[in-house]
């Protein structure tokens, strides 16, 4: 039951005004309003509103509003609004808003806002925002914001932003920003997350853990940086690893840290060192616990002799000393100069000298400062 103003002389017939409960007609070129559904066999040019569903066999240009779903067989151009789902068979351009998702079998261009998901099978561009995920089959240009993740089959040129994970199947030529991790084959832009993975890195990776498995022509900035490119890897972090990295065990002692055990990651001209030890305040104090990190540079002056310089940060737990007037926690900054002699390829000895400033957290003054020295052996 419907009220239609239709020109039946045209082939196919053109409906200019359609008002009813359930309507089924060839084409709409004007305004349609139905309490339940509206089915148009070929195309819509204008405004189509239905309480439940709008279905267009071929193309839609204009405005569609449905309580549950809008379905277009081929191309949708304009503004499409639904309570649950918008579906386009070939491509969609413009603005789409749905409570659950926007699904396009082909390409999309425009602004797509889905309560849970935006899904497009081919290349897309514009802004995609979804409460759960944005999934795109091929290339993407623009900004993709997903509550949990963004997944792109090929390359991205723009921004991927998510709380959990961003994936670009081929390359990242823009920015990947995730609360947990970013994954791509070829990174030519910026990856920022707790964990970043790429097979080839020509851009910048910033995270707690950065992994590159083939070619690194860019930068890795993180707590842990891993690269399979030993020649052009550029890494800044607590631990930097590439095929030339040499892990070594260091056992040492000195006037401050009496007994130390540390692991050194030695690269070409640079190294980082993570360790722990028994810290010693003075003759009237008991041992305390320390964890430390050092970073430095070295230079071989003879085949078996090296000179190096580094800076160390020590976190100190005073343990039982806090009952004798010492602060419970302190930190120390220690620059040093080191001389190292390699007895063989897997055994070496070293001696260090420098200065230590020990401070209490939250206070600007020094708790203690003194010269420091240390000797030890290097294994492997």
Explain what the structure shows.
It is built from no helices and 34 strands. It has strands spanning about 1-5, 15-25, 30-40, 45-50, 55, 60-65, 70, 75-80, 85-90, 90-100, 100-105, 105-115, 115-120, 125-130, 135, 140-145, 150, 155-160, 165-170, 175-180, 180-185, 190, 195-200, 205-215, 220-225, 235-240, 245-255, 255-265, 270-280, 285-300, 305-315, 330-340, 345-360, 365-380. It has a 22-stranded parallel β-barrel. An eight-stranded antiparallel barrel has the order 27-28-29-30-31-32-33-34. A hairpin with a 6-residue loop joins strand 1 and strand 2. About 40% of the residues are buried.
Low-confidence stretches: none
From the alpha carbons, calculate the radius of gyration and give it in angstroms.
Answer: 32 Å
Globally, the shape reads elongated
Helical percentage = under 10%
Mean pLDDT: 89
Our estimate of the beta-strand percent is over 45%
- Amino- and carboxy-terminal Cα gap: 87 Å
Would you count the extended β strands for me?
34
Give the class from helix and strand content and strand pairing.
mainly beta
Short description:
By secondary structure, this protein is mainly beta.
Task: Please describe the structure with a list of short key phrases separated by commas or semicolons.
34 strands; elongated; 380 residues; 22-stranded parallel β-barrel; mainly beta
List the helices and strands and how they pair.
Blueprint: E1 2-7, E2 14-25, E3 28-40, E4 43-50, E5 53-56, E6 59-66, E7 69-72, E8 75-82, E9 85-88, E10 91-98, E11 101-104, E12 107-114, E13 117-120, E14 124-130, E15 133-136, E16 140-146, E17 149-152, E18 156-162, E19 165-172, E20 175-178, E21 181-187, E22 190-192, E23 195-201, E24 204-216, E25 219-227, E26 234-241, E27 246-254, E28 257-266, E29 270-280, E30 287-302, E31 305-317, E32 329-342, E33 347-360, E34 366-379
Parallel strand pairs: 2-3, 3-4, 3-5, 4-6, 5-7, 6-8, 7-9, 8-10, 9-11, 10-12, 11-13, 12-14, 13-15, 14-16, 15-17, 16-18, 17-19, 18-20, 19-21, 20-22, 21-23, 22-24, 23-24, 24-25, 25-26
Antiparallel strand pairs: 1-2, 27-28, 27-34, 28-29, 29-30, 30-31, 31-32, 32-33, 33-34
């Amino acid at each position: 039951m419907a009220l239609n103003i239709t020109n039946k002389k045209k082939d196919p017939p053109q409906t200019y005004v359609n008002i009813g409960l359930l309507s089924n007609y060839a084409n709409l070129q004007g305004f349609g309003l139905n309490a339940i559904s509206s089915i148009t066999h070929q195309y819509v040019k204008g405004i189509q509103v239905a309480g439940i569903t709008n279905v267009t066999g071929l193309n839609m240009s204009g405005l569609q509003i449905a309580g549950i779903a809008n379905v277009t067989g081929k191309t949708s151009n304009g503004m499409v609004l639904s309570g649950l789902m918008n579906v386009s068979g070939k491509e969609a351009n413009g603005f789409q808003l749905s409570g659950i998702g926007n699904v396009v079998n082909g390409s999309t261009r425009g602004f797509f806002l889905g309560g849970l998901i935006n899904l497009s099978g081919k290349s897309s561009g514009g802004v995609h925002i979804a409460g759960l995920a944005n999934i795109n089959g091929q290339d993407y240009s623009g900004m993709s914001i997903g509550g949990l993740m963004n997944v792109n089959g090929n390359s991205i040129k723009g921004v991927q932003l998510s709380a959990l994970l961003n994936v670009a199947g081929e390359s990242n030529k823009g920015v990947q920003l995730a609360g947990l991790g970013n994954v791509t084959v070829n990174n030519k832009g910026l990856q920022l997350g707790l964990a970043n993975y790429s097979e080839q890195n020509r851009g910048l990776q910033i995270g707690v853990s950065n992994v590159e498995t083939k070619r690194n022509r860019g930068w890795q900035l993180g707590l842990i940086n891993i690269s399979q490119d030993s020649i052009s890897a550029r890494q800044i972090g607590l631990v930097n690893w590439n095929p030339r990295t040499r892990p070594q065990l260091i056992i040492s002692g000195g006037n401050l840290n009496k007994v130390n055990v540390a692991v050194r990651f030695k690269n070409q001209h640079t190294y980082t060192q993570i360790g722990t030890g028994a810290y010693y305040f003075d003759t009237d104090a008991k041992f305390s616990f320390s964890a430390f990190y050092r970073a430095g540079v070295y230079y071989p002056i003879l085949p078996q002799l090296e000179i190096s310089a580094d800076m160390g940060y020590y976190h100190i737990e005073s343990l039982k000393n806090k009952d004798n007037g010492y602060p419970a926690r302190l930190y120390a900054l220690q620059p040093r100069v080191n001389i190292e002699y390699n007895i063989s390829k897997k055994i070496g000895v070293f001696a260090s000298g420098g200065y230590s400033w020990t401070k209490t957290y939250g206070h600007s003054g020094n708790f203690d400062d003194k010269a420091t020295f240390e000797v030890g052996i290097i294994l492997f």
